TrEMBL record:
Reaction equations catalysed: L-ectoine + 2-oxoglutarate + O2 = 5-hydroxyectoine + succinate + CO2
EC number(s) stated in the UniProt entry for this protein: 1.14.11.55
SUPFAM superfamilies to which the protein is assigned, alphabetical: Clavaminate synthase-like
Family: Belongs to the PhyH family. EctD subfamily.
Subunit structure, as described in the record: Homodimer.
The organism's taxonomic lineage, starting at the top: Bacteria, Bacillati, Actinomycetota, Actinomycetes, Mycobacteriales
Annotated segments matching region Disordered: 1-21
Protein name according to UniProt: Ectoine hydroxylase
Cofactor or coenzyme needed: Fe(2+)
UniProt enzyme class: oxidoreductase
Length: 291
């Protein structure tokens, strides 16, 4: 298969214009109106308040507390901060019936199908914990760069849905995005180490753009920040440049994070890694969600 987006290179390479559309479906394919579709295509992200109602929030927070408390040290799906606290738990939709129900909500699944133009499956899911005072951030990156290099995702036909379970303020480590950056792929320098995911899920150094590339991108696209009340969903394209700062406030920030991939974008062999990442990071069975 031809590699449209070569990365993890020996030396810097110029940015590559995106080859695929951002919106694959049409107005009649789902709940988003034309203005929302146009905004997503232009900006690379979309904010949807009220994706889960107030009656869902306390039960979902309780599920996060339960998963965090039950997190075993020998479970590879549990990612811990350097200080020992739980950072993320992967496959929550398989660990919690309630999270599995969220995937099927009318405010979630039909949006994914509309944006990706057809049937979808869960490529990856996790819950993220960013406690007050100690929550560490995520450095600037494009998810697609990792999914392409290490998982074998061939095309930019995936979308992430981050559902806030706590209020997101401008000061408690909320996500920052570079609007419009989804239209450009930034190749990265440096070969993928063996079992890279064991380190990169805590701190990513390989598969991130250079400071020069990030500076150029920030000047070109600017930076927006996602804020909003609990229950709000942030939908963002797989290739948009995003990251978050640490949370030194008393206000925690937690979310359910769902990645939908098109069934027509099946994973192949990794494009820049010796072997695929584990199933809990990159699901390969194309079981339809809601199908």
């Amino acid at each position: 298969m031809i590699d449209t987006y070569p990365t993890r290179l020996d030396q810097p390479s110029p940015p590559i214009p995106r080859a695929e559309p951002t919106v694959w479906g049409t107005l009649t394919d789902g709940p988003l109106d034309q203005a929302a579709l146009n905004s997503y295509a232009d900006q690379g992200f979309l904010v949807r308040p009220g994706t889960v109602g107030a009656d869902w929030l306390d039960p979902l927070r309780g599920e996060l507390d339960r998963m965090g408390a039950a997190a075993a040290d020998d479970d590879p799906r549990v990612i811990r901060e350097p200080g020992g606290g739980v950072r993320s738990v992967f496959e929550p939709h398989l660990l919690s019936d309630l999270v599995a129900q969220v995937v099927e909500l009318d405010t979630v699944l039909p949006v994914a199908r509309q944006l990706l133009g057809g049937d979808v499956y869960i490529h990856q899911a996790r819950v993220n914990f960013m406690p007050g005072f100690t929550g560490a951030g995520f450095y600037w990156h494009s998810d697609f760069e990792t999914w392409h290099a290490e998982d074998g995702m061939p095309a930019m036909r995936a979308v992430s849905c981050s559902i806030a379970l706590t209020d997101n303020y401008s000061y408690n480590g909320s996500l920052m995005l570079m609007p419009g950056s989804h239209r450009v792929f930034y190749p990265c320098v440096g070969a993928t180490p063996d079992n890279h995911h064991r380190a990169s899920l805590v701190r990513q150094d390989i598969g991130v753009p250079s400071r020069e590339a990030l500076t150029e991108a920030a000047h070109r696209f600017g930076i927006s920040q996602f804020t909003g009340p609990a229950g709000t969903a942030l939908w963002f394209d797989c290739n948009i440049m995003h990251g978050s700062g640490s949370n030194i406030t008393p206000f925690p920030r937690s979310n359910v994070f769902l990645v939908f991939n098109s069934v027509d974008n099946a994973l192949t062999e990794p494009f820049a890694a010796a072997r695929p990442r584990p199933e809990f990071l990159a699901a390969r069975p194309k079981a339809l969600v809601g199908g």
